[in-house]
Amino acid sequence: MFLTQSAASKALQEIEGMLEATLFERTKVGLVPNAMGHCAIRYARLITTELNNFCREVSEIQSGTGGRLAIGTIMGAIPEILVSALHWLRTAHPNLSIEIVEGTSRHLLELLDGGQLDLVIGRSSVSPEPYEYNYFPISDEPISVVAGGRHPEVSGEMPFELLRDYRWVVYPKKMPLRVLLEKEMDLAGLPTPTHTIETDSTFATIAILQKSIDVVALLPTDVARMFARVEMIRILPVTLKIPANTFGIVTRKGGMPTAVAELFIRAMRERPLAH
Q1: Range of the domain at 258
Q2: Which residue intervals define the domain HTH lysR-type in the entry (predicted)?
Q3: Adjacent-strand bridge partners of 100
């Protein structure tokens, strides 16, 4: 940052003087932020993000490049919701640069907080501080039980209880699909799966399923259909009892979306809620 230690110390003293509060505690491992320090850091990052967005948008307007939009999205929103929205957006703004980051809602919210994303298509409920975000629901996320493409075709309804002898590819603990699986197991009177293969990667899940006929997983139905059409996986005729979760558009409260982000959000809000 091209600052000497003495200059940094002086700057910190000036900030603490303005706030009339100590922000850091001196420990054996260096300066550690206290509760007030964490609060100051969080808002400093938000202010820096808004200034960076301002400079970026002014530069893009001046250069005529059409702007840039960074979208974070959960896996289940990609095949139908996001792809359709991007088609509309690229038609309306052909010079727009678009960045897409796929991940879990928790990880995407961290990127949103850090200013790397303009908005998230996901769930704010996974955050320990969901009140820090604006949330507008846009779709349900039905879930399917899937196996590898070589799994024998099953005729008729397959009771969930028949999955007791399969090995499961599961999401990490406390993630929505993992919680849903544990609830379904409990309702079916089955023990929580052991000897699982844990991953949050869709690619890894599909690759693992392809190599075996006795491994199953949960996937968002829209994602499962996309891979089933090319026979990479097979959707098993299992009806889940837990209602589908809802996801939506997430932005930070107090933040000002860019003009392009505002157009995208408005278009998504005006579309009918998908089921």
Answers
A1: 67-140+246-270
A2: 1-34
A3: 71
- Structural domain includes residue 220: yes
DSSP state of 274: B
CATH of the domain at 135: 3.40.190.10
60 pLDDT band, cuts 50/70/90, is: low
Helix, strand, coil distribution of the chain in percent, nearest 5:
45, 25, 35
Separate counts of helices (H) and strands (E) for the chain: 8, 12
What's the rounded Cα separation, in Å, for the pair 271 and 82? 13
User: Exposure string (b/e) for 148-158, b if CB count within 10 Å is 16 or more?
Assistant: bbebeeeeeee
Q: Which two tokens stand for residue 145?
A: 């039980």
Q: How far apart are CA 126 and CA 106, in angstroms?
A: 6
How far apart CA 147 and CA 205 sit, in angstroms, is 10
Give, in order, the Cα–Cα distances in Å from 232 to each of 66, 128, 166: 38, 37, 18
| Number of separate domains in the chain | 3
Measured CA distances, 139 to 93, 117, 272 (Å): 24, 21, 9
Task: Render pLDDT for 139-161 as a digit per residue (tens, 0 to 9).
Answer: 889 999 999 999 998 888 999 99
pLDDT tens by residue, 168-192: 999 988 888 999 999 999 999 999 8
Residues 6+ apart with CB under 8 A from 248: 121, 122, 123, 135, 136, 137, 138, 139
CA distances from 151 to 16, 201, 212, 237 (A): 64, 21, 8, 12
